[in-house]
Amino acid sequence: MRDQYEIVTWDLEPGDVYAFHAMTVHGAGGNQRDDVRRRGYTVRYSGDDARYDTRVGTNKNLRSEAHADGDHLDSTRYPVVWSA
Questions:
Q1: Contact between 51 and 72 (Cβ < 8 Å)
Q2: Upper half-sphere CA count for residue 22 (Cβ side, 13 Å)
Q3: Cα(80)–Cα(45) distance, integer angstroms
Q4: Which of 5, 52, 54, 56 is the most buried (most CB within 10 A)?
Q5: Cβ(46)–Cβ(73) under 8 Å?
Q6: Closest Cα to residue 59, out of 41, 44, 70?
Q7: Residue 51's beta-bridge partner residues?
Q8: 55, 56, 52, 78: which is closest to 67 by C-alpha?
Q9: Cα–Cα distance between 40 and 15 in angstroms, integer?
Q10: Nearest to 69 by CA among 48, 79, 54
């Protein structure tokens, strides 16, 4: 089944960064070393039209008690970093 898709990969070194759309299917193999800890850091950016949403399937780790469904993402948890 994998041969039905275009699968791309990169050899990454410590400090390397890659960016992709959040809806891109992505993953990584397991850490092959016992002596090195693998770490990741995620940053999510959205457009100024993004709204808070708790429908089934949305990431529960991104929930905010300060937001109701439909609210703009413009708070300390979801700061505006640039506007036109």
A1: yes
A2: 8
A3: 9
A4: 52
A5: yes
A6: 44
A7: 72
A8: 52
A9: 10
A10: 54
